[in-house]
Specification:
Low-confidence stretches: none
Largest sheet: none
Strand content: under 5%
Number of helices: 3
Oligomer: single chain
Shape: globular
Order of helices and strands: HHH
Structural class: mainly alpha
């Protein structure tokens, strides 16, 4: 299990992030989950994510979250 999935499952253990193709469409992410996830990514990767620069496309699934992390200068190997 990837670190992103692990973080999400710790936040919302009853949600099936592993089998979801679109976290937003499936209603798995709410504002608190998003903020908690982004904070964890920032802490793990030592980066700062400006929420103003985040689009819905950045939050669709694990792959899009990794791309967003990389865009902000994070080492995605820390999240895989």
């Amino acid at each position: 299990m990837s670190k992103i999935i692990s973080i999400l499952k710790n936040i919302k253990p009853d949600c099936d992030f592993e089998n979801s193709l679109d976290y937003l469409e499936d209603g798995l992410l709410d504002s608190l989950t998003i903020i908690t996830l982004l904070t964890e990514i920032e802490n793990i990767c030592g980066i700062e994510i400006d929420v103003v620069d985040i689009d819905e496309e950045d939050l669709i699934n694990e792959e899009s979250l990794l791309k967003m992390t990389e865009r902000f200068g994070g080492d995605i190997s820390l999240l895989q």
